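Page 42, continued from yesterday. The earlier attempt failed because a stray header line got pasted into the input along with the sequence. Redoing it now with the clean sequence only.
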Amino acid sequence: MATDATNFLVKKWTGPYGGVPAFNEYKVSDFKPALEFAIQEKLDQIDAIANNLEEVSFENTVVALELSGKTLNQVQTVFGIYRSNLSSPEFNDVDTEMSPRLAAINNKMYQNKKLFSRIEKLYKSDAKGKLNEEQQRLVWLYYTDFVKEGAELSEVDKEEVAKINQELAGLFTLFSQKLLAEENDQFLELRSESDLDGLPEAFKNAAIAEAKERNLNVLACIGNTRSSIEPFLTFSNRRDLREKAFDIFVKRGDNKNENNTNETLVSILQLRARKAKILGFDNFAQWSLSNKMAKDPQKTLDLMESVWKPAVEKVKNDVASMQEMVDQEGRNFKIQPWDYRYYAEKVRKAKYDLDQNELKPYLQLENLREGMFWVAGELFDLGFKQVFDVPVYHSDVRVWEVNNSTTGNPVGLWYFDPYARQGKRSGAWMNSHRKQQKIEENVLPIVSNNCNFIKGAANEPVLISWDDATTLFHEFGHALHGLCSNVTYPGLSGTAVARDYVEFPSQLLEHWLATPEVLNKFALHYKTNQPLPSILVERLEKAANFNEGFATVETISSSFVDMKLHLTTETIDPHEFEKDVLQEINMPSEIVMRHRIPQFAHIFSSDGYAAGYYSYLWADVINADAYEAFIEGKGPYDKEISKRLYDTVLSVGNTIDNEKMYENFRGRTPESNALMRARNFPTVQNS
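This time it went through. Structure tokens are written below.
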């Protein structure tokens, strides 16, 4: 039984900081009984709220819902951590069985007629006006979420939506497991010294270490994840091997084997289209955007189009420079996608005298982590102290107490899991293990940043690329959004904002990596401890927008395809659809989408970014405009502006309308030309 004293998953978190997950006690075999117990407990709590005979009030309905499901929240948090970081065949079996059952809880909540009746009564009553602004926002959020999820449907339609949601949950799990298997099972073997030609020393050592870890009888190997493949494509002098590495990476989920994802994703798209239609929308994109900042899919397409054309123009110019280099070398080929990063790096060196390998010795992971802490201290008065009395789920993971550097009071906990390993999904992300809230007591947030850096040789510092350093700061921006939260209700806490607003704080923090203060203090050579030379800093500044065309085209092409996938209600052939959309937007042949359809985990491992990948671009407009506020002020460390950012954005969660929130920070709506200026694209003149 899940209530058995030996099942730590259902026990309340104990220990310091208001309780922490007991990772040292959890077992995969405990997940199923723990989830079953926690699911039933939550359903009983929902029924009690729905059947309460007292007059409807904010406290006995909305607050009661906010406090319900505490055990389930805890168990699901740990379940999600295992899914992303500690996947195994034993865990996958539980995940496959339990994911649809977890989806069923939301169905039962959103479709509970008596419960919705109470929420609707509160939403439409005069009593709502007596609530404070945050409470009114929470009532609005519950009401609109219930309506969006089908609370007003007929019983027959509710049943159909519930069935679809459960089927989708199973398919999301299946897609994720197939993609992870493709990443774990495939790699590029390097058999001789000549196969390592051009690779930086640290990367070479990491590839040798990975071959040993996999028990392969070869010199080295390159794992099938972005953090391994992209450096290989950038530095390997072996064009034949670059093509092979590129091939295994872009064909993840698209091979003729049991891990092919095409059938799975087509089923997901069909179910989403059906669900949207039942809910009264023409397509899934309309349904998905109904509670986002953009509201209308056409607005997102217009934004993409406005940035797409100058980006493609920039790519054409960059490719011309690369092709010239190929021709000068006397090599008879046209630039292909597996050549792009390699020759872009050569052009960067020729144009700006900037070689990534010159930068890398100064980019030590641990120093940059300290740099992030320093930035958080300068901007938001946060201090970080590593703690060792908090259990972790893997030996790679470390934990820091985050405190207010003025008062010394704890603010929350930050877990850091930086390294790639088998069973861990690729990419980088932030997780909220526990949301900040103050309903009954001041509950401290617990957040994590998870990355996939390559460990390298023992006793040597981990050196990362400039792009990886940018990603590190990006994810830390999400973490700060969670840590700085200062709201009453968990449903409005931290990053619980609209999907196309949530990337704004994370993209904004990327700017501080390149500030002289961070580079001088924390970009220190791993052998000499000397800071990044001023000449390199100058070159870095001059090359800041180099390759911006590539990055923009790579990302926006994925955004176009995502949106168009969810605007159609037809049954698609993924290959044909991808080809047609890319042809329609005039995709440069030298670049592929950042996420091809068969491996597009953002949109097929959950509904999270479905019809929402445009959010990165949308948030980047806001980010570019917001950073200009600092530049117009006293610079990146302007205390007055960082305090305003904290007061109007980071600390307020989703307690007010996100557009209004930004206006409170900037004094106006964001100006789209700020993005064009940031990327050094031609700006659009308003007539």
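Notes: Strands lie at 187-190, 220-223, 382-387, 398-404, 410-419, 429-434, 446-453.
Reminder to self: strip header lines before submitting.
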